[in-house]
Design goal:
By secondary structure, the protein is mainly α. Helix 1 crosses helix 2 and helix 1 crosses helix 3. The longest helix is centred in the last third of the chain and has 37 residues. The protein is elongated.
Length: about 120
């Protein structure tokens, strides 16, 4: 498959395919004599998998590490579950931080309503 075909099949741009190849999501594609990359049929599925893992909250580096573990042949759901658990922990931390900031913003609004505005210094 040419790069444009992979991009269309995966629902991403050609630049995204190139980026994923550079970052290691996709193995380096061999080139035709014309210089065009020749991707295997699994490239689009691999991109879709990477995108879905990123949508769950894994970083691109984590996705690449997970794919490498899969490619090495020893990865199972059980052996890789810790990655998703780390995402959940990060999300919980982020939610806690957002809740803290929200409480401060609500307090600032209440202060403004009470005539003690934090936005304007005198």
């Amino acid at each position: 498959m040419k790069i444009g075909q992979v991009a269309r099949a995966a629902g991403v741009s050609v630049d995204t395919v190139r980026f994923y190849e550079r970052r290691g999501v996709l193995p380096a594609a061999p080139r035709r004599p014309s210089g065009y990359r020749e991707f295997g049929e699994s490239a689009a599925e691999r991109i879709r998998m990477a995108k879905s893992l990123q949508a769950l909250g894994l970083t691109l580096d984590e996705v690449v590490d997970m794919l490498r573990a899969h490619d090495a042949g020893g990865a199972t759901c059980e052996s890789e579950r810790w990655r998703l658990e780390a995402v959940v922990t990060r999300l919980d931390d982020r939610i806690a931080e957002l809740e803290r900031v929200r409480r401060e913003a609500v307090q600032a609004v209440e202060d403004c309503r009470a005539g003690c505005c934090r936005l304007l210094s005198e």
